[in-house]
Amino acid sequence: MKKLLYFIAFTMASLAGMAQVSDFSGTWKLNSEKSTLFEQFSLAPSQLILTQTADSLTVEKHGNFQGTDYVTKDKFSLDGKECINPGMMDSKKTSTAVWSEDGKILTISSKLPTQDQGEATIKEVYQMVENNLKLELNAASSMGEMAEIYLLDKE
């Protein structure tokens, strides 16, 4: 009986110590006025549809780049393991998603090949700011670097 009580106490302490992760699920619309967009061009999605489970995050991005509408859909494993999604022009995007220690910030780091035989890196940081989703994007390739901050309102 004593062993059972110790086991229950240990289990409860372990669960209490585990961070509750943020849930980003929902349909989100870009708030351009509150966002910081790259001056020359923007990779900002007009809408994000996020579906989150205990072990994955599906990100559907709707947007317009240089006059062309696009929709991308990526699925990320939330256990820190590498996952592969379609990239541009039949390439493959390799990504890892890692939670902050407190479970409030999710960082997705991705790499994908570029047309010049190089590699582009993309870092996306998701977090809740009050009732809004904040997404920080940093991208770098042989063509240069860019940084944007998107603030999205829940629809």
Q: Which tags fit this structure?
A:
single chain; 155 residues; mainly beta; Lipocalin; 10-stranded antiparallel beta sheet; 1 helix; 54% strand; disordered N terminus
Structure overview:
The chain is mainly beta and 155 residues long. The chain has a single domain (20-154), classed as Lipocalin. It is built from one helix and ten strands. Strands 4-3-2-1-10-9-8-7-6-5 form a ten-stranded antiparallel beta sheet, with no helix packed on it. β2 and β3 (56-65) form a beta hairpin. The radius of gyration is 18 Å and the shape is globular.
Write the layout of secondary structure elements.
Layout: H1 2-17, E1 26-30, E2 47-52, E3 56-65, E4 68-77, E5 83-86, E6 92-99, E7 105-113, E8 119-129, E9 132-141, E10 144-154
Antiparallel strand pairs: 1-2, 1-10, 2-3, 3-4, 5-6, 6-7, 7-8, 8-9, 9-10
